Amino acid sequence: MFKLFAETVNLGEKLDTGVQNLPRGEFQLQTILNTVYAIMGMVAVVTIIYNAVVYLTSQGEPGTTKKATQGILFSVIGLAIILLAALLTNFIFVTVGEAQK
User: Fold this and answer.
1) For residue 37, how many other CB atoms are within 10 A of its CB?
2) Quick count: other Cβ atoms within 10 Å of Cβ 87?
3) Helices and strands in the chain, H and E counts
4) Residue 55 falls within a domain, yes or no?
5) Domain membership flag for residue 6
6) 89 near 7, Cβ under 8 Å?
7) Is there a contact between 90 and 34 (Cβ–Cβ < 8 Å)?
8) pLDDT at 42
């Protein structure tokens, strides 16, 4: 699970060389999915931070506070779904990869 986010940190270094790092030969679905999960995870974290700032600056207005609270809740649920999807797909790829050996 944490490997996915560790790979995201190194993503910037990989993107520096551009086209040279594109997968050659067989289609690497696992790499593409891990990158998509990492980007979605970062979006969810940014959304949580944004809604937390909105909550803190709402000055007790019930409508704004409710929207920010719901935004945080939905973002956390989305982040959990992203993590579960990443775990599930990585488990499937490892299991299928072991079966093919």
Assistant:
1) 21
2) 13
3) 4, 0
4) yes
5) no
6) no
7) yes
8) 96
- Residue 26 has what DSSP assignment? S
Is residue 60 in some structural domain?
Answer: yes
Tokens representing 2? 């944490």
CA 73, 77, 80 angle in degrees (round to 5)? Answer: 140
Task: Show the tokens assigned to 44.
Answer: 């969810």
Phi, psi (degrees; rounded to nearest 5) at 59: 55, 35
Residue recorded with tokens 């704004």: 64
Q: Return averaged pLDDT per consecutive 10 residues of the chain, 101 residues in all.
A: 57 55 60 92 96 94 95 97 94 79 62
DSSP state of 23: -
CA distance 9 to 4: 9
What's the number of domains the chain is made of? 1
Q: Which residues contact 54 (CB under 8 A, 6 or more apart)?
A: 64, 67, 68, 71
Q: Rounded to the nearest 10 degrees, how much is the dihedral formed by the CA atoms of 21, 81, 79, 18?
A: 10
Question: Using an 8 Å Cβ cutoff, are 1 and 86 in contact?
Answer: yes
